Amino acid sequence: MGVNMLSEWQAIGYLKLPVLETDRLILRLATNEDIPAILNFYLENRDFLTPYEPTRSEDFYTFSFWRDQVEKALIEFNYDQAIKFCLFKKTEPTILLGKINFHQILRGVCHSCVLGYSLAETEQGNGYMTEALKTAIHFIFTETNFHRVTANYMPRNQRSANVLKCLEFTVEGYARDYLLINGQWEDHILTSLTNQNWSL
């Protein structure tokens, strides 16, 4: 998978956090300064994202909730439990474009994680998510040494299916009533991508 990527590390307190760049985007973990942008992203895209996400409480759309989530994400990164990137355009570095989460990390005999992502409704169809995921996956394969990434999508979510196909994810199966999305158990198509260059 060919990727043009600039990888840097940003120091925040005792943490060194990855900062990735593509031709058009910056990917990095959120800090407290990003909370207004995160809130704006979820408020503006609330109706668009609702059919594809778990039911959100009203607290989800508050500053205090995201202050806690930003802190939690930094702790999870520090303990190798999750890597949660925020996406920004280079031309608009304070406006959140989308999110990419690598979570449910398993090491040991697995070295695997689960991928989730979302993109603003107004930015659909511009290739941003494919561009960002190529760089993010390259990072976690080469810099954090994962062997396997899984990603699952609802059959009706054709945009997600197209992104994963472009990234060469392999369809592995079909899970009935797999996740509770917007109050309903939804079937999901299961896919994965493995790191062909993984080594101890």
Number of helices: 5
Q: Which structural class do the helices and strands define?
A: alpha+beta
Spatial extent as radius of gyration? 16 Å
Helicity, as a percent range: 25-40%
| CATH H-tier superfamily | Gcn5-related N-acetyltransferase (GNAT)
Strand order of the largest sheet: 1-2-3-4-5-6-7-9-8
What's the pLDDT, averaged over the residues? Answer: 93
The name CATH uses for the topology is Aminopeptidase
- In whole angstroms, the N-to-C terminal distance is 21 Å
* The CATH top-level class label: Alpha Beta
How many domains make up the 3D coordinates? 1
Per DSSP E runs of 2 or more residues, the count of β-strands stands at 9
- Major sheet summary line: 9 strands, mixed
- The helix/strand series, from N terminus to C terminus, equals EEEHHHEEEHEHEE
Low-confidence stretches: none
Question: What's the CATH architecture?
Answer: 3-Layer(aba) Sandwich
Which term fits the overall shape? globular
Strand content: 35-45%
Task: Give short descriptive properties of this protein.
200 residues; alpha+beta; Aminopeptidase; nine-stranded mixed sheet
Can you describe what's shown?
- With 200 residues, the chain is an alpha+beta fold.
- It has a single domain (6-194), classed as Aminopeptidase, CATH 3.40.630.
- It is 27% helix and 38% strand.
- It contains 5 helices and 9 strands, in the order βββαααβββαβαββ.
- The chain has helices at residues 35-44, 46-49, 63-78, 128-142, 158-166, and strands at 6-12, 15-21, 25-28, 83-89, 92-106, 112-119, 148-153, 170-181, 184-194.
- It has a 9-stranded mixed β-sheet, sandwiched between helices.
- Helix 1 packs across helix 3.
- The longest helix is centred in the middle third of the chain and has 16 residues, at 63-78.
- It is globular and about 40 Å long.
